[in-house]
């Protein structure tokens, strides 16, 4: 039974990592932009949801909707006003800019919210669980997180392969110059992609904010796992990112069960092993 | 790679900003305030290093209040013998980074020419500052870290007790590991349990000390008839505690303890409740120091216990201003509209000890004389008596270390906010109890 428990907890943890990674995977796939501020943007979303629920007194669902819209607009503006200026053949400027952004967000949050640990309250939901078998219960909150992660990937996949926006995304990702010749507005496509990425991050923020407490400095630590999930899964593949998150979660849970000292290490080792065996990840997108 | 970038960049940025700020400050003092300064004696400068930003920033949250009160109190200077000296406090941000803490300590010593440095925010801040001070022969007073981290942690070879040497310029007062073990076991014996204890000791300085088989919990547990389940050292910021929970359930642990950072405790406690682990007592250090961290647990934080070093109900008052512990906390709550925190009393006490030593030093500009005066401190402060050379500390450390009282308490939900209720004072009976220890429901 304990073996089952480990695997289930690993998969559930993977759902959380996949949610962290989705937004990152999205803009990396479309724009080849490595967003070093991704962890801090998730944190910013968590603080905004916190403000919406406490200061405005909104229920969590309404707050989530409001902040999804807010973060989408923020992402759009961020791309048009800041990131757009540094995108180009050289990958260093966007890296530096997002790195700077990360520091700005961290210190901005410290100024605005103080250094206290905060958390999103979800009442009885956070401690309730489903009994699968005697002695084997699974928390409702992590289960919901996994289901949400799957739903989010499915929805993004739908957008990618069933809408004209998705066609524009894929075309721009393949070859921005030719996509532009075909009448695709590259600037808008990129801005929408960043907006979408931040909107998805709000889901990650809520799941994370209920699961653990957060303070302004905790963002970069979360970024690492998101990166690993994206790389393990394969660049440009959203289902791959979900799989990558689950592989990472499983590796940590199994490593932790053998010895808690190995928990985090097992995740990193698995990441390295995947890189060695399949440098392009488990499910790389078909395009070169 | 990114880490290095971070350091390099933040240094440059900071330096530029500090340069600008320093320029303004200098201009301000010369043009606006110059006529008011009575230039009889050179001011005594006290350096203060604290983590204003970064993960440890909660420790520095009350700084502005405490320093503001101190500056108000000391505006007419301090009398040393027949001379009156103005007192200045120069503050520096450690950014929660030990390297940065050492850097700013050096700046305080070489650029600001401070007479002494006070510091009180975890070993990550204290130790690098104290190490710089000892090197540069500038007196340093530190607190808010178990004394072992300060005395043993700064030895050339912490593993070899025979090589440990006392320090000449650095002094530290707080409680020690032996006290927190005493307080925790005393709290646990108040509640009827099966004496099976599950331990969450992370792989950091604290976790390794607590789990150490000679100086940590294990030997005391065995002696007092507790059964300790320690699944092993885990990394901080772990996202899954299912293996620890399984081990605790296997051992039927009715008591959970640990020294664990706030986000990890929240993750653990949520997961434990989801998986049906129902301990009778949870006593953790570090995670639940600040009321905000308990508040973050929602209703699930009720009756979780922790070690308590200072509360408004401590029967002490300031040697500087005569203000009581209760009034100091009330002053902070009114000024900040936030709940009081334990570091407030200790940060205040740092300046009590500093001013007391300066007064007795004869010549505050003489580092050796000042260090000698600090070593002779016997002062009733707002956190209790600070006296170096006492028999309460092992002889090898008595010169540099003084102990302040430690009690245990539970966070109790009172309407919307949590109150700290002292439930165990076996080690410090002078501190009044607020109630009895209650089992978790």
Query: Going across the major beta sheet of chain A, what is the strand order?
Result: 1-2
Gap from first CA to last CA of chain B = 48 Å
Q: Pair with the most extensive interface?
A: A-B, 53 and 46 residues
Number of helices of chain B: 14
Contiguous helical run count of chain A: 11
* Rg calculated over all Cα atoms of chain A: 19 Å
SSE class of chain A: mainly alpha
| Range of strand content of chain B | 15-25%
The largest sheet of chain A, given as strand count, sense and whether it forms a barrel, is: 2 strands, antiparallel
Number of domains of chain B: 3
Overall shape of chain A: it is globular
Q: What kind of assembly state do the chains in view correspond to?
A: heterodimer
Per the CATH scheme, the topology name of the largest domain in chain B is Rossmann fold
**Spatial separation of the terminal alpha carbons of chain A:** 44 Å
Percent of residues in helices of chain A comes to over 70%
- Mean pLDDT of chain A equals 90
Poorly predicted runs of chain A: none
What count of domains describes the coordinates of chain A?
1
Class derived from helix and strand content of chain B = alpha/beta
Question: How would you sum up this structure in a few lines?
Answer:
Chain A is mainly alpha-helical and 288 residues long. Chain A has helices at residues 2-31, 38-54, 60-86, 92-113, 140-162, 164-174, 176-181, 186-211, 219-233, 238-258, 263-277; strands spanning 129-133, 136-139. The longest helix of chain B has 32 residues, at 2-33.
Walk me through what this model shows.
The complex is a heterodimer of chains A (288) and B (441). The N and C termini of chain A lie far apart (44 Å). In chain A, strands 1-2 form a two-stranded antiparallel sheet. In chain A, helix 10 packs across helix 11 (263-277). The longest helix of chain A is centred in the first third of the chain and has 30 residues, at 2-31. Chain A has helices spanning 2-31, 38-54, 60-86, 92-113, 140-162, 164-174, 176-181, 186-211, 219-233, 238-258, 263-277; strands at 129-133, 136-139. The model of chain A has no long low-confidence stretch (mean pLDDT 90). Chain A contains 11 helices and 2 strands. Chain A is mainly alpha-helical and 288 residues long. Helices cover 74% and strands 3% of the residues of chain A. Chain A has one domain. Mean pLDDT of chain B is 87; it is low at 1-38. In chain B, helix 3 packs parallel to helix 4. The radius of gyration of chain B is 22 Å and the shape is globular. Chain B is α/β, with parallel strands linked by helices and 441 residues long. The longest helix of chain B has 32 residues, at 2-33. Chain B has helices at 2-33, 63-73, 98-110, 122-136, 147-151, 177-188, 205-210, 217-223, 242-250, 262-274, 291-295, 325-336, 343-360, 367-375, and strands at 44-50, 78-80, 83-85, 87-93, 116-119, 140-143, 170-173, 196-200, 227-229, 255-260, 281-286, 305-308, 378-381, 384-387, 401-402, 407-414, 417-424. Chain B has 3 domains: 1-34; 43-175 and 313-402, Response regulator (Rossmann fold), CATH 3.40.50; 178-308 and 406-424, Rossmann fold, CATH 3.40.50.2300. A 6-stranded parallel sheet of chain B has the order 4-1-5-6-7-15, with helices on both faces. In chain B, strands 9-8-10-11 form a 4-stranded parallel sheet, with helices on both faces. At the A-B interface, helix 1, helix 4, strand 2, helix 5 and helix 10 of A face helix 1, helix 9 and helix 10 of B.
